[in-house]
Design a protein that fits this description.
Chain lengths: ~140, ~140
DNA sequence: AGATTAAAAGACATTTTTATCCTTTTTATG
DNA sequence: CATAAAAAGGATAAAAATGTCTTTTAATCT
């Protein structure tokens, strides 16, 4: 659903949101400890975000990463899109391939469509619940 | 959130739910095409599930995998537990480490607690929304 | 201008996940 | 009892994700 890289990136941006602006840039060296992400790896992720215009940065002395006013209007999805790609996040919880919100598989209705009561569904739905009233294999495996 | 392996396993079990019982066992050879999982890999996963008593199997001629009446009462979580381990599934969407349902981080309230309106939250929540009213870094990074 | 600082970029290493192959064990059946 | 069918198990391979290191480029300060 979300790669660690995306989680790292979100944490990083969150840190920047709290600790930076145009006049107070932040070096990776100073933030990686707080967000618990390996320094070089965090640097890479932030560079990628910067390259895609999701966050801002300048090089050289007094340089670093920061969020502009505009940057702060970005959604978390904007971050995730850059790191994981949209497809990965939106993909069906079960569909390894072509199932998504537009073309949902049968399980989608249960766990996918509202991809978020997911844990509860996993715990409370038995195999029996799943298949009741259904005998057609094709219904479950559209792809 | 869910590994492909778990998705594969769920699909496999689903297939068994639809196509097997004590008297009609199913060989991996006959099911892997339908569920779109590599034969040898699916075999491994089903073996693992069988070893943990989540599904049933017998060897030899006319053998194969199947679901007993009891097996059908299992939850999807039972499957996922075996393949991914409980920790992985329950882990916080953002917490790479110790954040979970019991000790939620701040983002948890937003995306984690109801880990399922997640996509919508991602799309609709801006950085600004996230930090409004908060200036304390520690609040965001408990671990 | 020159030295220094910090991100950008890209090559390389490690680990985890996914996938395959091959041998062994079990078991039904003729 | 021999044979063949099928899962079980182990070793290995490939791919993807994660992580590190080194060099290059740009900004700043003296």
């Amino acid at each position: 659903m979300l790669s660690n890289s995306s989680k790292y990136a979100i944490k990083g941006v969150l840190y920047l949101a709290l600790n930076s602006d145009e006049d107070h840039k932040v070096m990776v060296r100073d933030m990686h400890g707080v967000v618990h992400v390996p320094e070089a790896y965090l640097a890479k992720l932030l560079q990628e975000l910067s390259r895609h215009g999701v966050i801002s940065s300048t090089r050289g002395p007094r340089g670093g990463f920061f969020l502009s006013k505009e940057d702060r209007k970005r959604s978390l999805m904007d971050i995730v899109k850059v790191i994981d790609g949209e497809k990965r996040v939106k993909s069906c919880v079960l569909g390894v391939k072509d199932c998504d919100t537009d073309q949902p598989c049968v399980l989608h209705k249960l766990v996918g469509a509202n991809k978020s009561k997911f844990i509860k569904v996993l715990e409370n739905t038995t195999i029996l619940d799943l298949i009741e009233g259904k005998r057609d294999v094709e219904e479950f495996f559209p792809v």
